[in-house]
Amino acid sequence: MDRDPFENYIKGSEPDKRDKAYAWRTAIGLQAVDGLLPSKYLIDIALRNIEGDISFDEAGELLQSYYKKNSKSDIEVEKSDIERQLADINELLGTKTTMHIRTIFEQCGNDSIFGRSVIEEITGLKSSRASDVINLMLKNGIIEPVKGHGKGKYKFK
């Protein structure tokens, strides 16, 4: 998932759509911690629910039915070693910084591309501290620079 499909709903939508988008993004972010990535079908169902085309219960039924029939189709699973990396460098970075990195990973996952402004948004850090966190993650091999998306863009390894 290169781009957050829920971002526009969260930033500039009526409260009902914003709340639904936030809930879907949070659920997907929690799955990302376990290295699970959403299928295109799940994103489609989530967007239909946000738009009010289907209820949350209908979305759940559609997803369960789909994954029961297609248990190995487009579910993407990646083994993320972010937890191991964070455990290894926790003493070097400090608990607060480690918590910020974990929060950033939960929101961005392995495939999202982000920069300093996204880190500021997610963590509430000021610009210079967000840059420090990026430098610490780069130095410790947690993130890598991404080319072709503008200067200062990164993704988790």
Give me a quick take on this structure.
The protein is mainly alpha-helical. 62% of the residues lie in helices and 6% in strands.
Give an account of the 3D structure:
It contains eight helices and four strands. It is mostly helical and 157 residues long. The model is unreliable at 75-79 (pLDDT under 50). It has helices spanning 7-12, 15-33, 40-51, 56-69, 82-93, 95-108, 116-123, 127-139; strands at residues 36-37, 76-77, 143-145, 154-156. A two-stranded antiparallel ribbon has the order 1-2. A two-stranded antiparallel sheet has the order 3-4. It is 62% helix and 6% strand. α2 packs antiparallel against α3 and α5 runs antiparallel to α6 (95-108).
Descriptive tags:
single chain, 157 residues, mainly alpha, two-stranded antiparallel sheet, 8 helices
Query: What's the N-to-C terminus distance?
Result: 14 Å
**Overall mean confidence score, pLDDT:** 81
SSE pattern, N- to C-terminal? HHEHHEHHHHEE
State the assembly state of the protein chains. single chain
The helix content, as a percent range, equals 55-70%
DSSP, total strands: 4
Question: What sort of overall outline do the alpha carbons produce when their principal axes are compared?
Answer: globular
The portion of residues forming beta strands comes to 5-15%
Low-confidence stretches: 75-79
Distinct helical segment count = 8
Cα gyration radius (Å) = 17 Å
**Major pleated sheet:** 2 strands, antiparallel
Pairing-aware structural class of the strands and helices?
mainly alpha
Name the strands of the widest sheet in spatial order. Answer: 1-2
